[in-house]
Amino acid sequence: MSDLSIPDPAVKHFPQPQALDIQHDTDPAQDHGNARRIPHLGHALLFFAIAIFSFFACVIIGFLIYLARHPGASTLGSSLTPTPAEVHLAAFAQLISYAVTFAISFAVFPLLWHRSFLDGISWTWRAARLRWWKLILFGIALSFVAQLAEHLFKSPKETTDILKLLDNPLSAWITAFSGALIAPIVEEVAFRGFLLPAFATAYDWISLDRTPAAYNRWRQTTSHTTPALVLASVLSSVAFAGLHASQLHAAYGPIVILFFVSLILSAVRIRLNSVAASALVHVSYNGILFLIMAIATGGFRHLDKLTQ
User: Fold this and answer.
1) Angstrom distance (rounded) from CA 123 to CA 101
2) Which of 47, 62, 163, 247 is least buried, going by the fewest C-beta atoms within 10 A?
3) Could you tell me where the DSSP H helices lie in the chain?
4) Are 273 and 130 in contact (CB under 8 A)?
5) How many CB atoms neighbour CB 75 within 10 A?
6) Is the peptide bond before 212 cis (omega within 30 degrees of 0)?
7) Which residues contact 149 (CB under 8 A, 6 or more apart)?
8) Quick check: 27 pLDDT over 80?
9) How many angstroms separate the CA atoms of 96 and 184, rounded?
């Protein structure tokens, strides 16, 4: 019988692998204890509060600058129906507020989460990069289907705010760039990056069995249950469609279509665990809409064709 001793797994030559909680830590030395579910409802409310504050601050500053440069425009904001000048000011203020919102968010949320902003909202660019062409084609196909469905409803094209931004070629191109690229990314961060996981976490906490075993699972994992994700998708899609209701002047047909489009975007985000993936679909969806507008109007040179 061999006199060689059996190696002791505890010695340094045979170190035991240390289990990593990839849900929230990648280094046992930096372990922070219980799994942290982010973003939760408090984070979502903070993000939307920052966005709303930034928007109104930019609108007020923009209107004050406009009134200072146009002293005769004393009736600005006096009518319930926004004038083209008011719509342009609000749109420009909104673009500036996007930048302000993200500047604040990129500074504040890493302090709360102890990780980067993009990591916290599950941006996960790699998932989108690996499937970029499929996501783009899917977004284009979804856009065409939505446009076909919209023909079943009467849409108030002559009154929508989006058409008021297309009153001249320069404004039309700026609107197209913003609507096709900037707005979809912002909306995906807000609704799929913050609101969807926040609603899912809230549902899972409310429905959690009040037992030691259930509490232990809650502390050790950050995954959501299927019912939570379904309900969160519905609630965040209601909010998404509601956001666009004023722009569409409460036209129920397009609003219902946007609700279902949002559900599909939520499914992409959940399936790939990537806000970047749903954002790429959203950019493709909006991009094809503005591309069709540009082609139909000869590069926005014949804007009268949009109301025909």
Assistant:
1) 17
2) 247
3) 41-69, 84-113, 117-120, 125-130, 132-150, 161-164, 169-177, 183-187, 196-206, 212-220, 226-245, 252-272, 275-296
4) no
5) 8
6) no
7) 257
8) no
9) 15
Q: Kindly report the average pLDDT of the chain as a whole number.
A: 84
Q: Position of tokens 């509601």?
A: 242
Helical axes 132-150 vs 275-296, angle rounded to 10°: 50
d(CA 44, CA 195): 6
Closest CA to 216 of 34, 56, 19: 34
The answer, yes or no, to whether residue 185 has pLDDT greater than 90, is yes
Of the candidates 108, 278, 273, 109, which has an alpha carbon nearest to the alpha carbon of residue 197?
273
Contact 224, 201 (CB under 8 A): yes
Distance CA 166, CA 93 (A): 17
Tell me which H or E stretch contains 38. none
Residue with tokens 């036209």: 251
pLDDT score at 302: 75
Q: What is the Cα–Cα distance from 157 to 273, expressed in whole angstroms?
A: 36
Cα angle value 200/264/145 (rounded, 5°): 165
Tokens of residue 7, six digits: 């190696």
Tokens describing residue 5: 């001793």
What is the rounded CA–CA span in Å between residue 212 and residue 182? 46
DSSP labels, 16-31: PPPP--TTT-S-GGG-
Burial class (CB in 10 A: 0-12, 13-18, 19+), 244: middle
What CA–CA distance (Å, rounded) separates 185 from 183?
A: 6
Q: What is the pTM of this model?
A: 0.85
User: DSSP 3-state assignment of 144?
Assistant: helix
Portion of the chain with pLDDT greater than 70, in percent: 81
In contact, 258 and 244? CB cutoff 8 Å: yes
Q: How far apart are the first and last CA of the chain?
A: 96
